[in-house]
Amino acid sequence: MFNKNCGSKLLRMITRNSLVLYFKNSLSALLVVLFISCQGNYKEQIPVVPDLNNIPESLKNQVIHADDLARKKTTDENLGNLGMVYYASNYYIPAAKCFELANIINPKSWQWLYYKGLLHIELGESALGLKAMKSVVDIQPKVWNAWYQLGEIYRQMDSTEQATDVFKRITSLDAKYTYVRSSNHGSYLPLQVFSKLSLSKVYMMEKANDKAERELQELTRTYKSFGPAYRELGNLYALKGDRIKAEKYKERANDLRVFSLPIDTLKDNLSLMSKSEAFVLKQIDDAMSGSDSKWTNILLQHARKNIPDSKYVLSKVIRQNLAQGTGEQILSLLDRHILLFKDNYKEILQIGIALGDAGFKKESSRYFEEGLSFESNTPNQKSTLAGLFYEKANNKERAVEIMKEVATSNFSDVHILGDALFLMIQTGFTDIAKAYYARLRMLSPNDASVKIYEGINEEKKDNVFKAISLFMQAFNAEPKNKYLIKHLTDLFMTNGMWEDAEDFFRRALSFYPNDSELQMYLGWVLVSYPQDRVADLKEGIEFSERAFYNSRYKTNNRVSAGRNIAVGYYQLKNKEMALQYINQTIGLALKYNIDENYVNGLKNLAEQFSSEMNG
């Protein structure tokens, strides 16, 4: 029999479940409505696509596609991506709006705020950049690049107390916490290095120069190839009124790469998605200035694929490959390059010189021929090109042909005749040289080329000291003549004239302060034949270090400089540093395939240092 109580309970249960289900469905429906409503609201706030008529088709399509995606599905990811596309295309205002909307939709997505902060910093909008970066570290306190950007903004706003706190926070960290894993970069410096540099600048702003000096000296001891630290030391000593030290450290900075930025993988993403010629070229310039060849090559590869018609990208591809020893890869690009730059004399000459330096003599000669075809060429420009044909393209016959033509037409021009005589001396055309010498000696008897000609004649007669005297007269008249510098270096070193050599290297370095070969030779003389033992040894180590870390080193010079440093430290009884440098130099000598006998000599030194340390 049916129980009424049971029926009532069943009815109440069904009603209750129905109500629960109803409310659940209603709530879901409401959430859906709210989501659609919010999406519609955000969709309405998406920036209008700017005028794209004057940009490449690939960039236009990228913007339109990103905008369509954001409007079809208005998520923080799609809006953030649209913001990145705008940012990487130099459309800063719509980019900032997209990042702002993306953060509203998902307040925990700190990366959109980070991009927004970078954008405002780039535009010089410090207050907005500060607000964005503070929001980033509030959401995710371990984004150390955001902390670094915060410190930089505080520094630029003269908020020295806050800047100091931020940079000290970073420098106090173990390097493992700020280490950036990136397969795109070949060189890496910890964020602490850049923070120490910035902290020193803050101290200088506060006139706490002793603190700044301590930070910078620590940086240069630990990171000897970090150019910006030496540059800042130069600025510091200039503030202190120490002109000699200021000049010394600025010169050392110029041995090195003085531009360097922390690795920022989020910023890298902008570069690798950009199809804007202006944006990508700026990133390539930064990478090349910072000597990060791996990242430079990645950017160039990206640019060639996405901006294939850019002649400026083509120029950078050619320059980079020639500089890094992969010139074979760009030979097929030279026809197009000449066509695109046929009206740019400077570019044609620069690439011609780069080709010659990289060993592509035939191609170099072709570029100099292109340079000759410019109707605007003056006699002095033609004379310069004649010299380039010989020095860079190894095309002696063409060099002499051009120079004879120029000299014949300008037989009373002392400068042209000096160039002509000098070229004939170099190329061995003695009869022509004799005629030019007679004419030039009559017009300008103290011309450098006259003295070189006379010096060579004395050298042939084994009158070495007379020859050196004449070459020094030529050097006084023309101290930047590299042929003279090289010739005098050989004479001083061959004849064991160490004091004269030291004086000469110092003078030559005053004109070429960043020449690694001159640095190495001066270091060698000071270490090998010290007059004031301790002072000269320390200075010899210093000049040898400059040659060793010089960013424009030659392999043989670098190895020789490494040996100088090791020997210098050994003589100063610092055998630990001596052993460290000799082992490092052996590694470089093996890497550069230096002569086996020389390497064995280095190994013998290493054994001597090691046995004395352990004895």
TrEMBL record:
Keyword annotations from UniProtKB, A to Z: TPR repeat
InterPro entries in the cross-refs: TPR-like_helical_dom_sf (IPR011990), TPR_rpt (IPR019734)
A Pfam family matched in the record: TPR_8
Entry-linked PROSITE patterns: TPR
The TPR repeat ranges on this chain: 144-177, 482-515
Protein name as annotated: Uncharacterized protein
Native organism: Allotamlana fucoidanivorans
